[in-house]
Amino acid sequence: MTPILLPGLLCDASVWQDMLPALQRRWPCVVPDYRALDSIEAMAQHVLQTAPPGPLALAGHSMGGRVALEILRQQPERIQRLALMDTGFEALALGAAGEKERAGRMALLQTARQDGMRAMGRDWARGMVHPSRLDSPLFDRILDMIERSTPEIFEAQIHALLHRPDAAALLGQIRCPTLLLCGREDAWSPLARHAQMRSLLGAAPVELVVIEHAGHMSPMEQPDAVCQAMQHWLDGSPA
Predict the structure, then answer these.
(1) Can you give the pLDDT at residue 238?
(2) Given a cut of 90, is residue 163 above it in pLDDT?
(3) Is the dihedral of CA 88, 92, 97, 100 positive or negative?
(4) Per-residue model confidence (pLDDT) at position 220
(5) Tell me: the pLDDT tens digits for 142-161?
(6) 3-class SS string, the chain
(7) What are the residue ranges spanned by the domains of the chain?
(8) pLDDT per residue over 212-234, tens digit each?
(9) In this structure, are residues 57 and 2 in contact, taking their beta carbons and an 8 Å threshold?
(10) How do residues 32-51 score in pLDDT, each as one tens digit?
(11) I need a surface site. Which of 20, 94, 130, 164 has the fewest CB within 10 A?
(12) How far apart are CA 37 and CA 33, in angstroms?
């Protein structure tokens, strides 16, 4: 079984780097690169085409959770375990809420084009971490990661998120062991949303793990706690 660690919007292997040494002692983890793909469906297809053969354990953080759900929809027979971390499952909302999200994302893209990716990230990422980590070395690491991307990649991934599929019905079909994990102070994908996912998962063996003193970037903010939860998930034992 190969763990596939799926990063989120403008994220890369840095999200997982503090826990990779411990995980890779036992499991051959793979961290995909979505390149400039502009749909969740295309990202999922790319991951499946480049993944090693055999069964997979999918761990998706933020946008990566949506990619994980789409991979499971496309090839459910290959997925032995699923972890959804600081993420969501619904399509873009209709009406004013959806238009607000669209306008907010496009404003960020405009800032990235005009002022650069780091300047955009300096504002955007402030809502992603626990308040105590603002302007910290960890915050600089997040900005470094964002700066490694380009406005073109940002635009493609925004398009993917604005046209994301609704996975609500899929949740009820999942039967593999599933970990739901969320930072206690995640303001982007709050704990209430993960509790809702738990109620929709139905017959799947599921565990909800709350990471204390963490926001949306829980794998970077609290890597030891997240790694421990993932090790239990991969082992098939309670966290």
Answers:
(1) 59
(2) yes
(3) positive
(4) 98
(5) 999 999 999 999 999 999 99
(6) CEEEEECCCCCCHHHCCCCHHHHHCCCCCECCCCCCCCCHHHHHHHHHHHCCCCCEEEEEECHHHHHHHHHHHHCHHHEEEEEEECCCCCCCCCHHHHHHHHHHHHHHHHHHHHHCHHHHHHHHHHHCCCHHHCCCHHHHHHHHHHHCCCHHHHHHHHHHHHCCCCCHHHHCCCCCCEEEEEECCCCCCCHHHHHHHHHHCCCCCEEEEEECCCCCCHHHHCHHHHHHHHHHHHHCCCC
(7) 2-92+165-235, 95-159
(8) 999 999 999 999 999 999 999 99
(9) yes
(10) 999 899 999 999 999 999 99
(11) 94
(12) 10
- In this structure, whether the domain defined by 2-92+165-235 belongs to CATH 3.40.50.1820 is answered with yes
**123: which 2 tokens?**
């504002």
pLDDT computed for residue 202 by the predictor: 77
Task: Give the distance from CA 214 to its chain's centroid.
Answer: 15
Burial class from Cβ neighbours inside 10 Å (0-12, 13-18, 19+) for residue 200 reads middle
Q: How far is CA 61 from CA 8, 13, 100, in A?
A: 6, 11, 23
Asked if 68 and 82 touch (Cβ cutoff 8 Å), the reply is yes
